[in-house]
Hints:
Layout: H1 6-9, H2 41-44, E1 46-48, H3 59-78, H4 88-100, H5 106-113, E2 114-119, E3 123-131, E4 133-137, E5 146-149, E6 156-157, E7 174-177, E8 183-184, H6 189-193, E9 203-207, H7 210-219, E10 221-225, E11 231-239, H8 247-253, H9 267-275, H10 282-286, E12 292-297, E13 315-318, E14 328-333, E15 340-346, E16 356-363, H11 365-373, E17 375-385, H12 388-393
Parallel strand pairs: 3-16, 4-10, 13-15
Antiparallel strand pairs: 1-2, 2-17, 3-17, 4-9, 5-9, 6-7, 7-8, 10-11, 11-12, 13-16, 14-15, 14-17
Helix pairs in contact: 3-4, 3-5
Amino acid sequence: MRLRLAASIALTTLALGACRMVPETAAPPVTAPPAPVAANALSAGLVPGPTIASLGIGASDASGALASFRESCPKLLSRDDASGLTSGSHWEPACTAAAMWGQGSALAFFDRYFETAQVGEGTAFATGYYEPEIAGSRTRRPGFDAPVYSLPPELERGWPDEVPEGERTGRPPLGRRDASGKFVPFYERSEIEAGALANRGLEIAWAADPVEFFFLQIQGSGRLRDPEGRVVRIGYAGQNGREYVGIGKLLRDRGLIGEGTGYATSMQGLMAFLRDQPDGGAAVMNENKSWIFFRELTGDGPLGALGVPVRREHSVAADPAFVPLGAPVWLDLDRSEADGMWIAQDTGGAIKGANRFDTFWGAGEDARTIAGGMSARGKALLFLPKGTVARINSR
Protein backbone atom coordinates (compact mmCIF):
# COMPACT_ATOMS: atom_id res chain seq x y z
CA MET A 1 0.00 0.00 0.00
CA ARG A 2 1.30 3.40 -0.92
CA LEU A 3 1.22 5.87 1.95
CA ARG A 4 0.35 9.08 0.26
CA LEU A 5 -1.12 11.99 2.14
CA ALA A 6 -1.44 14.64 -0.53
CA ALA A 7 -4.86 15.38 0.85
CA SER A 8 -3.23 16.68 4.01
CA ILE A 9 -1.31 19.20 1.91
CA ALA A 10 -4.46 20.54 0.30
CA LEU A 11 -5.91 22.95 2.87
CA THR A 12 -9.65 22.92 3.04
CA THR A 13 -11.80 25.78 4.26
CA LEU A 14 -13.19 25.55 7.79
CA ALA A 15 -16.94 26.05 7.90
CA LEU A 16 -18.15 27.99 10.94
CA GLY A 17 -21.63 27.16 12.21
CA ALA A 18 -23.92 29.94 13.42
CA CYS A 19 -24.64 30.15 17.17
CA ARG A 20 -28.08 30.85 18.62
CA MET A 21 -28.38 32.47 22.06
CA VAL A 22 -30.82 30.64 24.38
CA PRO A 23 -32.23 32.47 27.44
CA GLU A 24 -31.28 30.84 30.74
CA THR A 25 -34.93 30.21 31.55
CA ALA A 26 -35.68 28.47 28.30
CA ALA A 27 -35.88 24.72 28.16
CA PRO A 28 -32.86 23.17 26.47
CA PRO A 29 -33.48 22.48 22.80
CA VAL A 30 -34.28 18.93 21.83
CA THR A 31 -31.67 17.68 19.40
CA ALA A 32 -31.69 14.53 17.36
CA PRO A 33 -28.85 12.08 17.97
CA PRO A 34 -26.02 12.38 15.45
CA ALA A 35 -26.45 10.27 12.37
CA PRO A 36 -24.26 7.16 12.44
CA VAL A 37 -21.17 7.30 10.25
CA ALA A 38 -21.44 4.74 7.46
CA ALA A 39 -18.92 1.94 7.70
CA ASN A 40 -18.92 1.19 3.98
CA ALA A 41 -20.80 1.84 0.76
CA LEU A 42 -23.40 -0.78 1.57
CA SER A 43 -24.38 0.98 4.80
CA ALA A 44 -24.14 4.43 3.19
CA GLY A 45 -26.80 3.45 0.67
CA LEU A 46 -26.83 3.09 -3.09
CA VAL A 47 -28.99 5.21 -5.39
CA PRO A 48 -29.42 4.58 -9.15
CA GLY A 49 -27.57 7.12 -11.26
CA PRO A 50 -28.16 8.52 -14.75
CA THR A 51 -27.50 6.57 -17.90
CA ILE A 52 -23.91 6.35 -19.05
CA ALA A 53 -24.88 7.83 -22.43
CA SER A 54 -26.14 10.99 -20.70
CA LEU A 55 -22.77 11.76 -19.07
CA GLY A 56 -21.14 13.03 -22.25
CA ILE A 57 -18.00 10.90 -21.89
CA GLY A 58 -15.37 11.70 -24.49
CA ALA A 59 -13.87 8.96 -26.68
CA SER A 60 -10.29 9.44 -25.44
CA ASP A 61 -11.47 9.56 -21.82
CA ALA A 62 -13.34 6.26 -22.22
CA SER A 63 -10.43 4.66 -24.09
CA GLY A 64 -7.91 5.52 -21.38
CA ALA A 65 -10.27 4.34 -18.66
CA LEU A 66 -10.82 1.04 -20.48
CA ALA A 67 -7.05 0.45 -20.68
CA SER A 68 -6.66 1.06 -16.93
CA PHE A 69 -9.74 -1.04 -16.13
CA ARG A 70 -8.26 -3.91 -18.18
CA GLU A 71 -5.02 -3.72 -16.17
CA SER A 72 -7.02 -3.79 -12.93
CA CYS A 73 -9.15 -6.82 -13.76
CA PRO A 74 -6.87 -9.60 -12.45
CA LYS A 75 -6.84 -7.95 -9.01
CA LEU A 76 -10.49 -6.90 -9.19
CA LEU A 77 -11.55 -10.51 -9.75
CA SER A 78 -9.50 -11.88 -6.85
CA ARG A 79 -9.80 -9.19 -4.15
CA ASP A 80 -12.32 -9.14 -1.36
CA ASP A 81 -14.53 -6.08 -1.79
CA ALA A 82 -14.60 -4.13 1.48
CA SER A 83 -17.38 -1.89 0.15
CA GLY A 84 -19.91 -4.73 0.48
CA LEU A 85 -21.22 -4.04 -3.02
CA THR A 86 -19.69 -6.77 -5.16
CA SER A 87 -17.67 -9.95 -5.31
CA GLY A 88 -15.19 -11.05 -7.95
CA SER A 89 -17.80 -13.02 -9.88
CA HIS A 90 -19.88 -9.88 -10.45
CA TRP A 91 -17.01 -8.38 -12.48
CA GLU A 92 -16.30 -11.44 -14.63
CA PRO A 93 -18.50 -10.50 -17.63
CA ALA A 94 -16.98 -7.02 -17.92
CA CYS A 95 -13.42 -8.23 -17.37
CA THR A 96 -13.78 -11.06 -19.89
CA ALA A 97 -15.11 -8.61 -22.46
CA ALA A 98 -12.42 -6.01 -21.68
CA ALA A 99 -9.65 -8.53 -22.37
CA MET A 100 -11.03 -9.16 -25.86
CA TRP A 101 -12.33 -5.68 -26.67
CA GLY A 102 -10.63 -4.59 -29.86
CA GLN A 103 -10.97 -1.37 -31.79
CA GLY A 104 -14.62 -0.91 -30.97
CA SER A 105 -15.92 2.05 -29.04
CA ALA A 106 -14.70 2.10 -25.43
CA LEU A 107 -17.79 4.08 -24.51
CA ALA A 108 -19.95 1.28 -25.95
CA PHE A 109 -18.09 -1.16 -23.69
CA PHE A 110 -18.95 0.78 -20.54
CA ASP A 111 -22.53 1.34 -21.68
CA ARG A 112 -23.01 -2.38 -22.31
CA TYR A 113 -21.57 -3.76 -19.07
CA PHE A 114 -22.08 -1.04 -16.47
CA GLU A 115 -24.66 1.08 -14.70
CA THR A 116 -24.05 4.18 -12.62
CA ALA A 117 -24.77 4.46 -8.92
CA GLN A 118 -24.47 7.14 -6.28
CA VAL A 119 -23.07 6.26 -2.85
CA GLY A 120 -24.83 8.17 -0.09
CA GLU A 121 -25.40 11.78 -1.09
CA GLY A 122 -22.79 11.56 -3.84
CA THR A 123 -21.11 14.81 -2.75
CA ALA A 124 -17.47 14.49 -3.78
CA PHE A 125 -14.21 16.10 -2.66
CA ALA A 126 -11.04 15.50 -4.66
CA THR A 127 -7.40 16.43 -4.21
CA GLY A 128 -4.44 15.53 -6.41
CA TYR A 129 -1.13 13.69 -6.26
CA TYR A 130 1.70 13.16 -8.69
CA GLU A 131 5.00 11.37 -9.18
CA PRO A 132 7.73 13.85 -8.23
CA GLU A 133 11.06 13.90 -10.02
CA ILE A 134 13.85 15.33 -7.91
CA ALA A 135 17.61 15.46 -8.07
CA GLY A 136 19.16 12.31 -6.64
CA SER A 137 22.05 9.92 -6.98
CA ARG A 138 22.61 6.23 -6.32
CA THR A 139 25.87 7.14 -4.58
CA ARG A 140 26.62 9.92 -2.14
CA ARG A 141 28.43 12.82 -3.75
CA PRO A 142 28.84 16.55 -3.00
CA GLY A 143 25.41 18.18 -2.87
CA PHE A 144 23.54 14.89 -2.44
CA ASP A 145 23.28 14.33 1.30
CA ALA A 146 19.66 13.36 2.11
CA PRO A 147 19.54 9.56 2.51
CA VAL A 148 16.80 7.50 0.87
CA TYR A 149 16.47 4.43 3.08
CA SER A 150 15.21 0.96 2.35
CA LEU A 151 13.07 -0.88 4.89
CA PRO A 152 15.09 -1.62 8.08
CA PRO A 153 14.99 -5.32 9.02
CA GLU A 154 14.30 -4.54 12.70
CA LEU A 155 11.03 -2.73 11.93
CA GLU A 156 8.28 -5.08 13.12
CA ARG A 157 4.84 -5.23 14.65
CA GLY A 158 4.42 -6.04 18.31
CA TRP A 159 2.79 -5.08 21.57
CA PRO A 160 4.51 -2.76 24.06
CA ASP A 161 4.91 -4.35 27.48
CA GLU A 162 2.67 -1.72 29.06
CA VAL A 163 -0.34 -2.82 26.98
CA PRO A 164 -2.20 -5.50 29.02
CA GLU A 165 -2.90 -8.83 27.35
CA GLY A 166 -6.66 -8.21 27.48
CA GLU A 167 -6.32 -4.98 25.53
CA ARG A 168 -4.20 -6.39 22.72
CA THR A 169 -6.84 -6.37 20.02
CA GLY A 170 -6.57 -5.55 16.36
CA ARG A 171 -3.30 -5.14 14.50
CA PRO A 172 -0.23 -4.58 16.69
CA PRO A 173 1.65 -1.28 16.19
CA LEU A 174 4.95 -0.91 14.36
CA GLY A 175 8.12 -0.56 16.37
CA ARG A 176 11.43 -2.26 17.21
CA ARG A 177 13.20 -4.15 19.96
CA ASP A 178 15.75 -2.20 21.98
CA ALA A 179 19.00 -3.68 23.33
CA SER A 180 17.15 -5.26 26.24
CA GLY A 181 14.54 -6.85 23.99
CA LYS A 182 11.77 -4.46 25.00
CA PHE A 183 9.36 -3.47 22.24
CA VAL A 184 9.56 0.31 21.73
CA PRO A 185 8.36 2.79 19.08
CA PHE A 186 10.53 3.02 15.99
CA TYR A 187 12.77 6.02 15.42
CA GLU A 188 10.87 9.18 14.50
CA ARG A 189 11.83 11.58 11.72
CA SER A 190 14.14 13.76 13.82
CA GLU A 191 16.07 10.69 15.05
CA ILE A 192 16.43 9.31 11.53
CA GLU A 193 17.58 12.72 10.29
CA ALA A 194 20.13 12.73 13.14
CA GLY A 195 21.62 9.46 11.90
CA ALA A 196 19.78 6.65 13.72
CA LEU A 197 19.94 4.49 10.56
CA ALA A 198 23.16 5.83 9.04
CA ASN A 199 26.07 3.71 7.83
CA ARG A 200 24.19 0.42 7.87
CA GLY A 201 23.91 -0.09 4.13
CA LEU A 202 20.22 0.85 4.06
CA GLU A 203 20.77 3.82 1.73
CA ILE A 204 19.48 3.04 -1.76
CA ALA A 205 20.11 6.59 -2.98
CA TRP A 206 20.77 10.18 -1.89
CA ALA A 207 18.57 13.19 -2.60
CA ALA A 208 19.92 16.69 -3.18
CA ASP A 209 17.15 18.73 -1.55
CA PRO A 210 15.68 17.71 1.83
CA VAL A 211 12.52 19.77 1.20
CA GLU A 212 11.88 18.12 -2.16
CA PHE A 213 12.52 14.70 -0.61
CA PHE A 214 10.12 15.47 2.26
CA PHE A 215 7.31 16.05 -0.25
CA LEU A 216 8.32 12.98 -2.27
CA GLN A 217 7.84 10.98 0.93
CA ILE A 218 4.34 12.40 1.28
CA GLN A 219 3.56 11.41 -2.30
CA GLY A 220 4.96 7.93 -1.58
CA SER A 221 6.74 7.37 -4.88
CA GLY A 222 8.84 9.32 -7.33
CA ARG A 223 11.86 9.55 -9.56
CA LEU A 224 15.46 10.45 -8.75
CA ARG A 225 17.46 12.00 -11.61
CA ASP A 226 21.24 12.22 -11.27
CA PRO A 227 23.49 14.88 -12.89
CA GLU A 228 24.22 12.48 -15.77
CA GLY A 229 20.50 12.18 -16.58
CA ARG A 230 20.02 8.65 -15.24
CA VAL A 231 16.67 8.05 -13.56
CA VAL A 232 15.80 5.70 -10.70
CA ARG A 233 12.13 5.16 -9.86
CA ILE A 234 11.39 4.52 -6.18
CA GLY A 235 8.19 3.37 -4.51
CA TYR A 236 6.74 2.93 -1.04
CA ALA A 237 8.19 0.03 0.95
CA GLY A 238 6.97 0.83 4.46
CA GLN A 239 6.54 3.43 7.18
CA ASN A 240 8.10 3.86 10.61
CA GLY A 241 4.80 3.61 12.46
CA ARG A 242 5.03 7.10 13.90
CA GLU A 243 2.21 9.62 13.63
CA TYR A 244 1.76 11.72 10.53
CA VAL A 245 1.38 15.46 11.05
CA GLY A 246 0.13 17.55 8.13
CA ILE A 247 2.45 20.54 8.28
CA GLY A 248 0.17 22.57 6.02
CA LYS A 249 -2.61 22.61 8.60
CA LEU A 250 -0.09 23.09 11.39
CA LEU A 251 1.38 26.21 9.78
CA ARG A 252 -2.00 27.59 8.84
CA ASP A 253 -3.29 27.17 12.40
CA ARG A 254 -0.25 29.08 13.63
CA GLY A 255 -0.94 31.90 11.19
CA LEU A 256 2.33 31.35 9.34
CA ILE A 257 0.85 30.65 5.89
CA GLY A 258 -2.31 31.81 4.22
CA GLU A 259 -3.87 35.19 3.60
CA GLY A 260 -1.65 38.09 4.60
CA THR A 261 1.46 35.99 5.25
CA GLY A 262 3.00 36.01 1.79
CA TYR A 263 2.79 32.21 1.58
CA ALA A 264 -0.01 30.43 -0.27
CA THR A 265 -1.68 27.36 1.23
CA SER A 266 -0.64 25.24 -1.76
CA MET A 267 2.26 22.80 -1.84
CA GLN A 268 4.31 25.45 -3.60
CA GLY A 269 3.57 27.93 -0.79
CA LEU A 270 4.59 25.39 1.84
CA MET A 271 7.88 24.73 0.05
CA ALA A 272 8.60 28.45 -0.13
CA PHE A 273 7.96 28.84 3.60
CA LEU A 274 10.26 25.93 4.50
CA ARG A 275 13.08 27.21 2.31
CA ASP A 276 12.88 30.64 3.94
CA GLN A 277 13.53 29.27 7.44
CA PRO A 278 17.05 29.62 8.87
CA ASP A 279 17.37 25.84 9.26
CA GLY A 280 15.84 25.10 5.87
CA GLY A 281 12.56 24.07 7.46
CA ALA A 282 14.06 21.09 9.32
CA ALA A 283 12.34 21.90 12.61
CA VAL A 284 8.94 22.14 10.93
CA MET A 285 9.41 18.96 8.90
CA ASN A 286 10.50 17.10 12.04
CA GLU A 287 7.12 17.85 13.63
CA ASN A 288 5.86 15.23 11.20
CA LYS A 289 7.29 12.14 12.91
CA SER A 290 6.39 9.82 10.04
CA TRP A 291 9.15 8.53 7.77
CA ILE A 292 8.70 6.60 4.53
CA PHE A 293 11.04 3.81 3.40
CA PHE A 294 11.45 3.03 -0.30
CA ARG A 295 12.34 0.31 -2.74
CA GLU A 296 13.53 0.62 -6.32
CA LEU A 297 10.81 0.06 -8.92
CA THR A 298 10.99 -1.21 -12.45
CA GLY A 299 8.25 -0.86 -15.05
CA ASP A 300 6.47 2.00 -16.77
CA GLY A 301 4.65 3.57 -13.85
CA PRO A 302 4.46 3.82 -10.07
CA LEU A 303 2.37 1.11 -8.46
CA GLY A 304 -0.82 1.90 -6.58
CA ALA A 305 -2.40 -0.08 -3.76
CA LEU A 306 -4.06 -2.38 -6.29
CA GLY A 307 -0.60 -3.51 -7.42
CA VAL A 308 -0.89 -2.16 -10.97
CA PRO A 309 0.67 0.99 -12.45
CA VAL A 310 -1.26 4.19 -11.88
CA ARG A 311 -1.80 6.30 -15.00
CA ARG A 312 -2.02 10.05 -15.45
CA GLU A 313 -5.62 11.36 -15.58
CA HIS A 314 -7.01 7.83 -15.39
CA SER A 315 -6.07 6.55 -11.90
CA VAL A 316 -7.65 7.76 -8.69
CA ALA A 317 -7.16 6.88 -5.04
CA ALA A 318 -10.30 6.07 -3.07
CA ASP A 319 -11.39 4.52 0.20
CA PRO A 320 -11.87 0.80 -0.54
CA ALA A 321 -14.67 0.69 2.03
CA PHE A 322 -16.71 2.85 -0.34
CA VAL A 323 -15.32 2.07 -3.80
CA PRO A 324 -14.33 -1.41 -5.02
CA LEU A 325 -10.66 -1.09 -6.00
CA GLY A 326 -10.55 -1.48 -9.77
CA ALA A 327 -13.99 0.05 -10.36
CA PRO A 328 -14.56 3.00 -12.71
CA VAL A 329 -15.54 6.32 -11.15
CA TRP A 330 -17.18 9.37 -12.77
CA LEU A 331 -16.35 12.80 -11.33
CA ASP A 332 -18.18 16.04 -12.12
CA LEU A 333 -16.30 18.74 -10.19
CA ASP A 334 -15.75 22.48 -10.04
CA ARG A 335 -12.25 21.92 -11.45
CA SER A 336 -12.86 20.91 -15.05
CA GLU A 337 -9.47 19.24 -15.50
CA ALA A 338 -10.52 16.61 -12.94
CA ASP A 339 -13.88 15.89 -14.61
CA GLY A 340 -14.44 12.56 -16.31
CA MET A 341 -13.70 8.86 -15.89
CA TRP A 342 -11.17 7.47 -13.45
CA ILE A 343 -10.31 3.97 -12.27
CA ALA A 344 -9.92 3.43 -8.51
CA GLN A 345 -6.45 1.86 -8.32
CA ASP A 346 -4.95 3.37 -5.20
CA THR A 347 -5.58 4.31 -1.58
CA GLY A 348 -4.18 6.92 0.80
CA GLY A 349 -3.93 7.56 4.50
CA ALA A 350 -6.01 10.74 4.20
CA ILE A 351 -8.43 9.38 1.60
CA LYS A 352 -11.23 8.22 3.85
CA GLY A 353 -15.01 8.13 3.54
CA ALA A 354 -17.64 8.12 0.84
CA ASN A 355 -16.91 10.10 -2.34
CA ARG A 356 -13.40 11.16 -1.23
CA PHE A 357 -10.87 10.90 -4.05
CA ASP A 358 -7.26 11.76 -4.91
CA THR A 359 -6.60 12.19 -8.63
CA PHE A 360 -3.26 11.14 -10.15
CA TRP A 361 -1.49 13.54 -12.54
CA GLY A 362 1.68 11.71 -13.53
CA ALA A 363 5.11 13.34 -13.52
CA GLY A 364 6.53 16.69 -14.60
CA GLU A 365 6.10 20.34 -13.71
CA ASP A 366 2.51 20.58 -14.94
CA ALA A 367 1.58 17.51 -12.88
CA ARG A 368 3.19 19.09 -9.85
CA THR A 369 1.30 22.34 -10.36
CA ILE A 370 -2.09 20.70 -10.92
CA ALA A 371 -1.76 18.18 -8.09
CA GLY A 372 -0.35 20.73 -5.64
CA GLY A 373 -3.30 23.06 -6.13
CA MET A 374 -6.08 20.52 -6.61
CA SER A 375 -9.01 20.95 -4.26
CA ALA A 376 -12.30 20.27 -6.02
CA ARG A 377 -15.89 19.63 -5.02
CA GLY A 378 -18.83 18.24 -6.92
CA LYS A 379 -20.57 14.92 -7.54
CA ALA A 380 -19.36 11.36 -7.95
CA LEU A 381 -20.82 8.22 -9.48
CA LEU A 382 -19.60 4.65 -9.41
CA PHE A 383 -19.71 2.41 -12.46
CA LEU A 384 -20.88 -0.99 -11.26
CA PRO A 385 -21.78 -4.20 -13.10
CA LYS A 386 -25.32 -4.02 -14.43
CA GLY A 387 -27.89 -5.22 -11.93
CA THR A 388 -25.86 -4.24 -8.85
CA VAL A 389 -28.21 -1.51 -7.61
CA ALA A 390 -31.31 -3.69 -7.94
CA ARG A 391 -29.53 -6.59 -6.24
CA ILE A 392 -28.35 -4.44 -3.32
CA ASN A 393 -31.67 -2.61 -2.84
CA SER A 394 -33.73 -5.79 -2.96
CA ARG A 395 -32.11 -7.17 0.18
